[in-house]
Amino acid sequence: MIPSRVIETKRDGGELGAEELEAFLQAYLEDRIPDYQMAAFLMATYFRGLTRVETDALVRCMLESGAVLDLGYLDGARVDKHSTGGVGDKVSLVLAPLAAALGVYVPMMSGRGLGHTAGTLDKLEAIPGFRTVLRLDEFRAILETVGCAMIGQTDEIAPLDRRLYALRDVTATVPVIPLIAASIMSKKLAEGLNGLVLDVKVGSGAFIPDEERALDLARTMVSIGAGRGLPTVALLTAMDRPLGRAVGNALETREAIACLRGDGPADVVELVIEEAAEMLLLSDASTQRDGARERAREALSSGAALDRFIRLVEAQGGDPRVIEDPSRLALAPERAVVEVVEAGTVGTVEPRVLGFGVVGLGGGRTRMDQEVDLGVGFEVDVRPGQRVEPGQPLGTVYARDADGLSRGTRVLREAVRVGDPPHPRPLISHRVTAADV
Amino acid sequence: MIPSRVIETKRDGGELGAEELEAFLQAYLEDRIPDYQMAAFLMATYFRGLTRVETDALVRCMLESGAVLDLGYLDGARVDKHSTGGVGDKVSLVLAPLAAALGVYVPMMSGRGLGHTAGTLDKLEAIPGFRTVLRLDEFRAILETVGCAMIGQTDEIAPLDRRLYALRDVTATVPVIPLIAASIMSKKLAEGLNGLVLDVKVGSGAFIPDEERALDLARTMVSIGAGRGLPTVALLTAMDRPLGRAVGNALETREAIACLRGDGPADVVELVIEEAAEMLLLSDASTQRDGARERAREALSSGAALDRFIRLVEAQGGDPRVIEDPSRLALAPERAVVEVVEAGTVGTVEPRVLGFGVVGLGGGRTRMDQEVDLGVGFEVDVRPGQRVEPGQPLGTVYARDADGLSRGTRVLREAVRVGDPPHPRPLISHRVTAADV
Predict the structure, then answer these.
(1) Count of CB contacts below 8 A, A vs B?
(2) One domain, residues B147 and B252
């Protein structure tokens, strides 16, 4: 394996042998290939892609570069859900305890917010005391007793992926479908799962807005899972508007709790029920889809899911009183209700504008080492297609100070466009399984 | 200037502002941008190219990163010639003293052989004692007294180019026309010239075999020169066969001396005369082309050019007795005449096969830090289109030992193909000036 030849082959659109690519990746992991050769290779993949064989070799190297959880001690199936990231996506906070209540073990390793999207870890940390960094033995014990546990990715998992991601981040080589797919799947394969549900966001607020490319990503990930014996189902879900009403960490946590209390926005609840049903189907092949949905709805309305969430919060050191009293979530002190100015039909609610609006209020990151203000954000009162009249509330801004309020007000007004013809995407537009790829 | 944005803009096919690109390059030169970001940028330029504005900005940064010779103390025009590199190209050794004999100052900075082509410095060093590393004051003095001086590129010239070239070499980003053009022109612009002749090789033995791409390179370089006030003329010349008969360092030096003695192969002599005429035209606008050719032929046949060469060799520490007695050139001791096997017409004499054949005999480099055996190589007795009969000599192999002889014999037989229809390129197919671009 000659590194410059590997780069050249990729540059010229040829296919690398699995052994050749693995030798290249292994040499990089062992610091025998410098970052600059890897950077040139990554940029070549931006233009040339990776074949299925190459992608599988990359996933294998990433996975084998680190530890794989052995969760065989659990007496039931382990199924996780991963979202590619969107604005207002608080599904994990509701879904993990719900699936646990249905008897599915959920060993969930999540990320932090970056760019215009928030992350599950930040939302959990809006609960006073909640610890997202656990020792592995704590994680395993909580998973066994509560049925779910939620932590950040540990250093032991897929170190090659972490190194490659850091390099991609500074070399403009992030948006490459097979690299994204391999990065996600290597981490999920390390969780020792029996099934995986992928929520692939599509629309202007998604990292990959285009439907064809989002489908390509979904198919690539499902195929990687199938190839390594992990049954994987991907749903393409709408991110041309925020999910739910709340955008911003603590606000989203509050909305997730409302969902668990039976009072969530219809779209969040529908997506949670569908994904819980997929997880049930993956955990037990004999389940029927309608029955699975019914059981999920029942566990949500009965309070069984809420009960799991309370136990999860307690187990991970959080203050469970936030469930009864959401004011204990560190919400920003300054609030302003923004009103509709002109009558008309809401055309779009731009998720990206709101997401970057949260960053602008101090509630998001443009670099991974930034602190975030978990209390700021927006609650949006209108949806695309809705008829509005002047004076009616458009939404509420939560900010740290008066200056933030006025900036947030401008963001909210910019995000909601009245008059555009509304063409909202269906909440769930595609379902991709191994049979489709 | 945000480095990842610069990379992204190039990746997406956009044009960078001159200031933005200069800031990026300057930051790289000052080690504020790491090699891996530059490597990603270079690979993006492989796919997207550089615009004229971007190329000019790159040349400016390369040039300003180092010293520029001030040759204003000379009482005449300074004109240099640069070849993009081919097999058997010993033109510089004849041309520099010839132009000097015609009153043109030639401050020539050359390179070493790499890959399948040999370099002027190696050929000069086949002359016992010849020093190609001179102090700048020595170089200036020899240039003034002899009219020409021939050295390697000094560390002071265009250090940014040297750093970028080293990075390109290991990241599969060498074959990018604007990068090649900027690299060549930044070094030539640093020589403080009044005119420049470019010999752009085209055909299977050239680094850029394709005529369209070679023309693109020629036009890019001529345009860079014009943009910076350096009148530049480029000739596209044939490299679908070796130039002359000799391939290999000392053998080529011997052939160059033969040319200076009035006994050179017709193609080498023709190219030398044409390039000398171009140099004369650039040094004095009142010259007529026919007159310039005539003066060049006269200076070659009268021995004036040979006299300059002898003075050059003496001034740079070489043994001038090699001119009378070429056996003093360190030619390899083992020789074998290879004979034609089957009758027919010679279709092709593959320059690349012969060039790599020299490398295989120890006379070339695959890495810049390799020592070379200057004495090995080939003398080819046949040309494309020539009718041959069995038993007639095909050429002679010069090797260090018997094993080398047998390898060299195979190379010579492989390089000469009898039976292919011959389609040799015209020796000089295009002439590109600023008026054409």
Answers:
(1) 78
(2) yes
